[in-house]
Structure formats: C-alpha cells, structure tokens
C-alpha cells in the first residue's frame, strides 16, 4: 500500500513537472511569435499573442511585459501618448509578477531577467518624456536585476540589451546631472553589450538593432548607422521607427531630397494604420520637416503651406511632451524667413 502511494505521488509529481515545463515552452513560443509580429508592425496580432500568454499563466510576467512593450513601441512609432495607461498598467503588473516569482524562488534567472527588463522599459518610457531622474532610478533597478540574472545564468544574452542601453545612455546623459559624471564613460561598453544581444539573444535581437540605430545616430557614426538601418529595413520593410531616424539623419546631413522622400514614407505608413494609433503630434512633426525640406529645396510655396498647417493647430489639440523640439516655433521661424 505504501509503495503504491509513493508510486502514485511520483506520477503526480512528474505530471505536474511536465505540465510546468510544457507551459513554459508554450509561453516562450508565443513570446517569440509576438515579438516577431511586433517587429513587422503588426501590433494588433502581437497584442492578441501576448494576451494568450496571460490566459495560459496569469502569474507569468512575460505577457504583461511584452504587452507593455507593444504599447511603448506604438507610442514611439506613432508619436502618441494614447497608450500611457495601458503601458504603465502592464509594466507595473510585470514588475509585480516577476518580484513574486523571485520571492518564491521560482525560475530565478528568468524572473530576474523579466524584472530587469520591466524596470528598463519603464525607464525608457520615462526618458522619452524627459523624466530623467525617474528614468535613472528605474534604469538602475533594471540594471541590478539583469546583473543578478546573469550571475545565475551567464548565457541569458537578452539581459545584455537592457544593461547595454543603461550603460550607454547613462554615460551619454551624464552632462545633464553632475552626479552621473562619476560613473565614467561607458558608452562603448554599452554598445558592445547591445550588439551581444543582437547577435546571440533569444528574444531581443530586433529591439537591440533598433537601439543601435538611435545610438549610432547620437554618436554621429553614420557608416554603422546606415548599415544597420539597411539591415533592419531589409528584414522589416514596414518599420516606422527606423525611418524616423533615417529621415532625421538625412536632415542632419543636409540631404533634403532623401529626407523628404523618407518622411513621405513615414507619413504613408502612419496613415495606413489609422487614427487609432497616431495623433496630430505625428502630423506636426512630419509637416514641419516637409516645410524645412521644401524651403531648402527651393520650393517656398510648399514650405509655406506645410509650416502654416503646423502653426494653425491650436495648442489644446496636441501634447508637447511628445516633441523633442518645438516644431510650432520652428515653423513660425520658417514662415518669418520666407517673408524676408
């Protein structure tokens, strides 16, 4: 009788263990699928895929983290703050679920990885709104958790993405805060860490490549910038994020024809997705750069037309937190210059 009971308990134990393993395998499969859909800018499919993860296991941080990532990317691509509530609700839930798993000593390496990634994306969202103190705090929490993950399992290469982003931008923004100067210049270290994820990561290859696009532009390393943009657009031809930076880089280099052509591609892709995603903020940015390009290409009539469209929009209609530049004031400067 005792042997029979032990035998039954053994079967139940291994069935439960197999069920847990099969659940984790399914979650990883869905994670890869959803991230691929997101890279193709198929955001609705990606949301559905990540929602399935939550249905399978509502205690897993994966689904919440990746749903938050979709909303983060939507806001970055479409110059919108429409999904702030959805982003923070999911990212905070991911942090909560990852911390609970750590407290219960469950799959510690992966749990620390997801905790670090969640804090990292929260920091990126804060930084995009110029909330740099909050970005630094969340980024540091993320860094510590990702380093804990690598201490347990040094082959979780996706963790290097968040660590690299933190190391690079902490050094890049050091001039804004005196206390960051003491950390030294870790930009090159950050770039190499991000490249490690791009080359060896299980889930974060695409997002690492996009991070390098922004970094190479910031470093004025245009050779590597154009190389990685070409790679991204070859693999993901509808990628809006890469095109924003490509168009801006053409502006920096004074290639007005290429800049105009690329901003037209951005406009086409944004309009194709519909008003559910973008707001007037995206249009303001595109119209300003249309005006700037036409001015420098010797088309004053078109420059005036687009600059006037920007200036005519009432302030109540747009959220200035989206903008890295004051496009309304810059458009007024174009109009003033055309009158002289």
3D architecture notes:
With 340 residues, this protein is mainly alpha-helical. It has a domain at 239-340: Serine Threonine Protein Phosphatase 5, Tetratricopeptide repeat. The protein is built from 15 helices and no strands. Helix 1 (2-39) runs antiparallel to helix 2, helix 3 packs parallel to helix 5 (108-128) and helix 10 (222-235) runs antiparallel to helix 11. The termini are far apart. 41% of the residues are buried. The model is unreliable at 2-19 and 178-182 (pLDDT under 50).
Secondary-structure element string: HHHHHHHHHHHHHHH
Average pLDDT level: 88
How much strand content do the residues show? under 5%
Number of helices, counting only DSSP H or I runs of 4 residues or more: 15
> Which CATH architecture of the domain at 239-340 would you pick?
Alpha Horseshoe
Specify the helix fraction band. Answer: over 70%
Weakly predicted, low-confidence segments:
2-19, 178-182
- Quickly name the level 1 CATH class of the domain at 239-340: Mainly Alpha
Q: Return Rg in Å.
A: 23 Å
User: What does the main sheet amount to?
Assistant: none
Can you lay out the helices and strands and say which pair or pack?
Layout lengths: L1 H38 L3 H14 L4 H17 L6 H20 L4 H21 L3 H21 L6 H14 L14 H14 L4 H14 L3 H14 L4 H14 L2 H18 L6 H17 L3 H12 L15 H13 L1
Summarize the structure.
The protein is an all-alpha fold and 340 residues long. It has 15 helices and no strands.
What tags apply to this protein structure?
340 residues; mainly alpha; Serine Threonine Protein Phosphatase 5, Tetratricopeptide repeat; 15 helices; 77% helix; 0% strand; disordered N terminus
